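Lecture 7 notes: from sequence to structure.

We start with a single chain of 225 residues. Read the sequence below before looking at the structure.
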Amino acid sequence: MRIPAHAVCTAIRDDIVSGVFEPGGRLTEEVLARRYGVSRVPVREALRTLQSEGFVTTRRHAGACVAEPTAQEAADLLELRMLLEPLAAARAARRRTDAHLKVLRGLVRLGQERARRGQGEDLRALGGWFHETLAQASGSPGLIALLTQMRHKVAWMFVVEAPVRPAESWAEHGAIVDAVARGDAERARALAAVHADRATGAHRLRQRPTVSTSQPAVNMSSGRH
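Now the structure, written as tokens:
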């Protein structure tokens, strides 16, 4: 079975984000092909995609390597996200569907319930789904792609601390959804900007330990995607 390049790209990106491949580490086609059980062709295509996304860089005499983002690049990433997430909220107020609104309201209900119970791990996942759905509701493929890429990069570069007052955070989510439901683009933008600004304070640059470059093989056909 031929494994498509986008599946290989997702697998490599996930391993970069999770720290399996450390910043600065070499990414040789032969080793990656063996690890994921694929030919070198989809690996080559995947590396080109990851280079365009900023996860991979090419060095003279070394070839493809995991990028090493600087503190300034990480700060710039958060600043860009603070500009784009309010834009997505404003567009969602104009373009959302009833299906988007139903999912957003459901996520807010679950988030508020989990916040009352103190279920922090559930809140982290629900928060990710909320922001992903809000981006999807913007109806803007380019914006959706940028925000998706940013979420991967933020997870790679930062440790995100749980909100001190999760109930307040989910109340902010609820207010954003109310503005989106009413079609009030400017209020949705303003609320999302405040929420993004507060969330930025919970981000800490990730300190990565040394990771062995010897990795076990991964069978791409066993359900990884």
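Residues 11 and 224 are 7 Å apart (CA to CA). Keep this in mind for problem set 3.
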